[in-house]
């Protein structure tokens, strides 16, 4: 065993003349432990929310949306479906979609929304629309149940704003794309029947979107054709590769990935995660200052020992190494204790949160606000590694000044008052 490590371990295990120094040492270990634990738990929850939101967005949006320049209508969309699917083997399903802004009215309640025209069978292969239906009377989308009336699916929050339920009649007003002698013709209301409520677990999505079949969409828009072709890929993270393949093919199409539409949102999540890491790292930094103060007090307590070691031939760097190692051992003890406790806390965060909520009588995680019935938590090994390395580095830096001060003590100065 190296001399420096041996002496450092003896200093940590030995009895203190001043019990206050021992207390400060314990507080230093606990401080690093709490800081590392807090970092791991918060980073795990933020990573969990990030992945949960990505899964929700990927499930409700197509992995790739293909359209003509200027969003011109695609008239022969049956042929376009086959052409686009043949571009890459990574495309496993395609579906036509048309979109129009509309004014929806139920009784005296009126609100704006976006109506998507879809092919129910094909769209079910591309997105989670069919899985999101909370009420459809056991029927597939598009099966009419009132003679002469078309059907519509409303987003959960959109239906709540309108006070609409399955079976209710709804008037949908759009600006049809027809022109008269003096300009565009105004839209007229189309009576539709609510056949289902869609809960996508995305507030913005559920707030504004409604769904009809393609025939009803043509009536609302007043023209043939579709606006986009939605594509599902074998892996949504290959969307950029397929986008390049589509735009470099001989086809006259442009493409947008699911990430293009949410780039600012995910960028904000990443910045927030970095900001939280920096803020919580200050907890570890404060604990590192505790290590500095602990080592300074130990150096003062061990002046006589340092003088004897220097008299016996120990060099300045060797003395410095003793206190650097002692500080690192304190930091490592707190770091690895924090890693273990933080990992366990993050893994069992939902049962722990339930116990705390029961004790305090409060709802710590309201599922109606966050859309999830449990706190999403994912322990990322990379996050744990970065947190561990950061804590060890801060612990090391906190040892340098007191260790350097100890190495500068001369035998005469150390033993003068002994």
Write the layout of secondary structure elements.
Layout: H1 3-13, H2 19-60, E1 64-67, H3 77-85, E2 91-106, E3 109-118, H4 120-126, H5 129-132, E4 133-135, E5 150-155, H6 156-162, E6 169-173, E7 179-180, E8 183-184, E9 189-198, H7 203-208, E10 209-213, H8 214-221, E11 228-233, H9 239-248, E12 254-257, H10 263-301, H11 303-311, H12 316-347, H13 349-360, H14 367-370, H15 381-407, H16 411-415
Helix pairs in contact: 1-12, 2-10, 2-12, 2-15, 10-12, 10-15, 12-15
Protein described:
- By secondary structure, the chain is α+β, with helices and mostly antiparallel strands.
- The protein folds into two domains: 3-56 and 265-415, no CATH class; 62-257, no CATH class.
- 56% of the residues lie in helices and 17% in strands.
- The chain has 16 helices and twelve strands.
- The strands form two sheets. The protein has a six-stranded mixed beta barrel with strand order 2-3-10-5-9-6, surrounded by four helices. A two-stranded antiparallel ribbon has the order 7-8.
- Strand 7 (179-180) and strand 8 (183-184) form a beta hairpin.
- Helix 1 (3-13) crosses helix 12 and helix 2 (19-60) packs across helix 12 (316-347).
- The protein is elongated and about 100 Å long.
- It starts with a helix and ends with a helix.
- Mean pLDDT is 81; it is low at 144-148 and 182-186.
